[in-house]
Design goal:
Length: 111
Amino acid sequence: MTVELETGWNLRSVMASRGIFQTSKLKPLLEERGIDLSREQVYRLVTQSPQRVRLDVLSALCDALDCSLDDLVTITRREAATPVAVGEEATRGSIGDLRPVRAAIRRPRTK
């Protein structure tokens, strides 16, 4: 079994719960806390799920929106079944159990 982790980015819903519906309203809040992001970067941070976020940006978001990291990021853990290869049987043992069949070489009969 493999474990799959799914992360959710909830910045937009946290902003909406605080009465902030425009990304342009978030930029001055971040600037007050020493985070200088462009208008486009703030827009992408709100509308898209980021692959990585700096810790100072996360802490500024939590402080500006008066929320915790758990409110911004949700992590869902799932156990996924390992894929079975085509033609592989579940009861088959290790490769050491498979032995080749010895070939028999026969000479052609002469008349």
